[in-house]
Design goal:
The complex is a heterodimer of chains A (49) and B (592). Chain A is mostly beta strands and 49 residues long. Chain A has one domain. Helices cover 0% and strands 29% of the residues of chain A. Chain A has no helices and three strands. In chain A, strands 2-1-3 form a three-stranded antiparallel sheet, with no helix packed on it. By secondary structure, chain B is α/β, with parallel strands linked by helices. Chain B has five domains: 132 residues, no CATH class; 159 residues, FAD/NAD(P)-binding domain (3-Layer(bba) Sandwich); 71 residues, no CATH class; 60 residues, Alpha-Beta Plaits, CATH 3.30.70; 154 residues, Rossmann fold (3-Layer(aba) Sandwich), CATH 3.40.50. Chain B contains 16 helices and 27 strands. In chain B, the strands form ten sheets. Chain B has a five-stranded parallel sheet. In chain B, strand 15 and strand 16 form a beta hairpin. In chain B, helix 5 crosses helix 6 and helix 12 crosses helix 15. The longest helix of chain B has 21 residues. Classes of the chains: A mainly beta (49), B alpha/beta (592). Chains A and B meet through loops of A and helix 14, strand 27 and helix 15 of B.
Amino acid sequence: MAEEANFKCLRCGHQFKAPFSPKDEPQERACPECGSNSVRRIKEKAKKK
Amino acid sequence: MTDVGRHPRIELMTLSEVVDVQGYIGNFRVKVLRKARYVDEKECTACGDCLEDCPVTKPNEFDLGLSTRKAIYQPFPQAVPAAFALNMEECLGNNPIACGKCLEKCEKECIDYDMQDKEVEIKVGTIIVATGMDVYDPTELDEFGYTRFENVVTSLEFERLINAGGPTEGHLIRPTDWQLPKRVAFIQCIGSRSEKRGNPYCSNVCCMNTIKDSLLIKNHWPEVEIKVFYMDIRAFGKGFEDLYKRSKAEGVMYIRGIPGDIREDQETKNLFLLAEDSNTGKVMEHEVDMVILSIGLIPSTENSLIRQLLTLSRTSDGFFMEAHPKLQPVDAPTKGVFFAGCAESPKDIKDSVTQASASASRANILMSAGKFTVEAITSLINEELCKACGLCARVCPYHAIEFDKEKKLPARVIEASCAGCGTCGAECAFDAVVMRHFTDQQILGQVEAILEENPQDKVVVFACNWCSYAGADYAGVSRLQYPPSIRIIRTMCSGRVDEKFVLHAFKLGAPIVLVSGCHFADCHYINANRWTQKRVEKLWDKLEKKGIRPERLQLEWISAAEGLKFAKVMKEMEELRQGVTLEEIDYTRKEL
């Protein structure tokens, strides 16, 4: 299974999941709703023990 | 090829592999691994005596496994040099008990089992990449029955079958009974023009290859019934339409529709194709003796390695990208490197020869001049400010910056290799890189001029020269309207957009900043815009930490042909600008 991450479009605010691996080269991403390339990965905060 | 082999000023290195390329235009140093042939190519006359007693039999790769060869062999009859080679992995070796028969047989004593691979370094001024392509393997398209049904062959296998030098000496036979097929079907676009399976692009050569093959069959065996199943026939070259019409006149039937299924009669081994003719709307079953799958062309599997060695760029289809599709169609983005043939895109023999001639001319112009003019936009290192961290060298897509990690000497730019993208300048944390004509002072000066009056009414747009700025130009000449609040600053590449340019714009009151560049596949500086994306992502984090909405920094990839997109994005920027409050702008000014 390909790893996935959550992304947020900084233009329309739409949130979505897309394949992502930290080892991968950067990829051209577009928001599936508005097509914008201002797509930011939402980093999950490390859980406190 | 024979002429090439004989030419006194051409050194042909066969059975060789390029393992490393260093240097730059006019001064490339290429390491070549010359694999052992185990046969003295100068002495061998390819008489074939050694073949007679060789006990090893292997599939002949040139005939796509339709015939066999020995462990000592000539890859194909016209191979240059005309000498045999011994595949040591297949050979039983020079052990008198095991074998050694070819050695005994060769009167000229050409065979040497002790030959070793050797690495040589050559110095060259220019490089032409003519590494060709591979063909699509249709096995995954199960509905066509390739490998399930013996009488389904690929167009390349068919090419060998009807070749006079091929395994059947040019006799058309079907594989199951070795009889002349009475009904033959060609299926087009196998692995091409499909978004889901295979490749989305047109492979360029398959339509004409099928038309040529169909005419060849009709010339030799006019009684054979030929049906061609196609999506569109693309016969756009000189004389190609005439050839297409001729094949129709000869009785070749063209059916507009790709079969959805092929089944086999287990007794007769005949094949039944179920296809809808989209011209008539009728679904019909066609019985044929043999099916030829017109397979598409795919990038060579070795392209990734070559890309790394020569710092090249690839388009989304995996073929190498030229420096400019119209103005430099045979030049690679790396200076002094050129393309010929299918390494750059699928093309036929005529186009390959044309491109090869152009590449040879381009290389020759440089070589005979002995000098090369560099555009005055290269980067320059300020040695006093350079801390020898090596980041500039790491991010340079052209490997144009030399840096000695051990000696910790200031970085040095090889101007002949530098293309002027400015990524080094944007990444350098010590302002030690000066980009000629796109200096920090010049760009910051433009930011200041834009935001001097009523900054809250402006949108600062950084646009790369080749795509986004050209997209703006296209929007302009197309008379497309976009808001007057948009103020564009041109950089050669979006990779030049330094973090401090963006932050300076926000500090001076810009409500919205947009960084725009080429789509990833179109980057004119190999992959410099990947660094743009990384930098913008870091800036989003930085802005958020300071309590500034990251939405105020936007990123967009716009190509030169996307004038409409440019105008649309600019309207969206204006909408975003209207959503930024004066309080936000004041807060940002104080925070930065």
